[in-house]
Amino acid sequence: MQNRIQQAFQKKGKDLLNIYFTAGYPTLDATVPLIKAISAAGADLIEIGMPFSDPLADGPVIQQSSTVALANGMNMRVLFRQLEGIRQEVTDTPILLMGYLNPVMQFGVENFCREAAAAGVDGIILPDLPLDDYVAEYQETFRKYNLRPVFLITPQTAPERIRRIDELTDSFLYLVSGPGTTGGQNTQAEGVQEAYFQRIEAMNLRNPRLIGFGIGDKASFQNACQHAEGAIIGSALIRALEGVEDAPAAATRFISSVLK
Amino acid sequence: MSTTYQKPTERGYYGQFGGAFIPEMLYPNVEELRQNYLDIMAEPAFQEEYQQLLRDYVGRPTPLFEAKRLSEKYNTRVFLKREDLCHTGAHKVNNTVGQILLAKRLGKTRIIAETGAGQHGVATATVCALMGMQCIVYMGEIDMERQKPNVYRMRLLGAEVRAAMSGSRTLKDATNEAIRDWISNPVDTHYIIGSVVGPHPYPDLVARLQAVISEEMRKQLLEKTGSELPQYVVACVGGGSNAAGAFYHFLEEPSVKLVAVEAAGHGVNSGHSAATSVLGKPGIIHGSRTLLMQDEDGQITEPYSLSAGLDYPGIGPLHAFLADSGRARFISIEDEPALKAVAECSRLEGIIPALETAHALAALGQLGAGPDDVVVVNLSGRGDKDLETYIKYADAIM
Residue A22: phi, psi to the nearest 5? Predict the structure, then answer.
């Protein structure tokens, strides 16, 4: 069974923009207005961060937005309540949930998948879920609810492991651009990043690829699109929402600046 | 399921606890360590260098001292395993000496560490100075304030101390920052974790390196009491490294009662506590499935203890298994009785213990040990680093 993620890639093929934001940031009720604004502004996929107290893979910007969101009262129950009815308004744009394993474990995997599917979510990104544990304990439930896992690949991921990851999903591969947490700058020597992207491209993998970590403006987005089907922007959008009155308008302006 | 307490399964499980829940960015490093640590540690050249450093640099074996006046007070035979006499003043150096040799053999040139009370940071900075390696220690901003002497010691030893400013600004957050550093430096860096926490193989690696404590205890007990086996072994638990080392060679000896002492802070149910075995539920922290303090949404809650070394919302997976299976008894001690135990040990035995260690000493009255029973308390560290705290709470202590 196809889902919206595959359809989005089939329809557009290249230059896909995936926008991440943290649920409940900057205000508790910003989640739904932001989804609508981000979709209307031209993002091809939307990744909603489920805030966690100890987000190990995230840099300071997403950490801070998570702290604010938790203080605003965001949690899984609130998020799923907010997402009720979202598919009447945003029909085609794939929605992914990104977060850490512990809150999902406490909510219960079956509950989590059922609620996510009911809300119209298409994919799940849990960076600290090991592949073996996914296969042993999660895969069946994900399939039952037609939810697609998205796994990360880094410059250090071995080729046979990339092949295995590619076999385990039908969505996209999340190419981490280089060493570091989210929102960092590319500090690699010239050519190192390109060589890594080209090495992955030459593997002729089943899944399309989106490049994330350190993509934050028009130039870095366009550069990423040279090496993959598109890119993911998170921290730069969060920064654009900081301290603004009208978060959806700020998100719209930010996305226009990337796509114009 | 793990069939022994000592050895986790190949994937690092003690019962339902353990594993390696890490983002892909850490996978190659952790996997490299997992594939190599047992082989490297089994190499004769490694063992020779490790044993020599333990003897000539750390000062091992540490004495097992029969504490006659404490024995009299508690009407049982109390022995103190003097880890406070290790170079740098605590058991932490047993682990850092082993891990720095491991890091060298893995070709790493840059060392990172987290620290709570600063003892692990000092022990890491020390071996980095010895081996000429770059050293960066992450420490919570609050802990830097309450353990100032150790911050200066680390700097004097040539380490860079970076303040962890997120969350509660204590040990948990210092660990988060160290992990983020490792994510950003995946090739040249080894992360020396200071406790039996973190993704597999760290809990097993650190337990093996601390196991020298109980290995020596058995020999020394045979000499002093005629039996290798005591009735009780008592140790404090934050993450649980000194307890893992003190318990290790007694884990499969059911006649030996193992007592793990956690910090109750202001009281187990006060909302200001670090008694993880009582307050924790299974969950994931720092790459390990273990017992951890969390709210109903799975957000990790802020622990509290006056003692920076016990101020951690989780415990190592081995200890979670010992608690869950009932193999070890867990006792919680509040700040105030711990402070009183500082004075008691100082005045009865002439030994000023670390505040962490004092929690274990404060449990002596709760063991139910008889006059002929042999009780070994792991005296994990000395109290110099806590002097400022002891002065501040002089009224509670005296």
Answer: -90, 125
In whole angstroms, give the CA distance from residue A165 to residue B26: 16
Residue B272 vs residues B118, B235, B303, B304: alpha-carbon distances, Å = 22, 21, 6, 5
Q: Give pLDDT tens digits for A81-128.
A: 999 999 999 999 999 999 999 999 999 999 999 999 999 999 999 999
Structural domain boundaries in chain B: 14-54+92-206, 59-89+211-397
- Tokens encoding B356: 């962490």
Q: Residue B309 carries which DSSP code?
A: T
Which residues neighbour A27 within 8 Å (Cβ) at sequence distance 6 or greater? Answer: A72, A247
CATH of B59-89+211-397, one of 3.40.50.11930, 3.40.50.1100, 3.30.420.40, 3.40.50.2000: 3.40.50.1100
Q: Identify residue B45 by its one-letter amino acid code.
A: A
What is the spatial distance between Cα A125 and Cα A98, in angstroms, rounded to a whole number?
4
* Residues in B touching A179 (Cβ below 8 Å): 25, 183-187
Of A7, A58, A34, A32, the C-alpha closest to A241 is: A34
Q: Which two tokens stand for residue B177?
A: 């920052």
Residue that is written with structure tokens 């560490």 in the block: B113
CA neighbours closer than 13 Å in the CB half-sphere of residue B167: 28
Partners of A162 in beta bridges:
none
**Pair type for strands B374-379 and B232-236:** parallel
A6 contacts A33 by C-beta, under 8 angstroms: no
Residue pLDDT, tens place only, B185-242? 989 999 999 999 999 999 999 999 999 999 999 999 999 999 999 999 999 999 999 9
CB contact under 8 A, B300 and A158: no
**Residues of B within an 8 Å Cβ radius of A:** 11, 19-25, 27-29, 166-167, 172, 176, 179-180, 183-187, 281, 283-287, 294, 296-301
Domains of chain A: 10-150+215-259 (3.20.20.70)
CB count, 10 Å around CB of A256?
12
Note whether B14-54+92-206 and B59-89+211-397 share their fold: yes
The structure tokens listed for A181 are 């947490």
Q: What token pair was written down for B319?
A: 């200890």
Cα nearest neighbour of A177 on chain B: B25
Query: Which chain B residue shows the shortest CA-CA distance from A75?
Result: B297
Question: Are B354 and B327 contacting, i.e. CB atoms less than 8 angstroms apart?
Answer: no
∠ Cα B389 B391 B397 (to 5°): 90
- Residue pair B256/B329 in contact (Cβ under 8 Å)? The answer is no
The encoded tokens of residue B133 equal: 């390696």
The dihedrals phi and psi of B241, each to the nearest 5 degrees, come to: -75, -40
Sort out which chain A residues have CB atoms less than 8 A from B179's CB and list them: 56
Give the whole-angstrom CA distance, residue A33 versus residue A100.
Answer: 24
Q: What is the ipTM of this complex?
A: 0.94
Read off the pLDDT of residues B147-197 as tens digits, 9 standing for 90 and up. 889 999 999 999 999 999 988 888 999 999 999 999 999 899 999 999 999
Contact list in A for residue B29 (CB cut-off 8 A) is: 156
Chain A residue set in contact with B, beta carbons under 8 Å: 52-54, 56-57, 59-60, 63, 67, 70, 75-76, 100-107, 127-130, 132-133, 151-154, 156-158, 161, 176, 179-181, 184
Q: B14-54+92-206 belongs to which CATH class?
A: alpha beta
The residue among A106, A152, A186, A188 with the most chain B CBs within 10 A of its CB, best to mutate, is A106
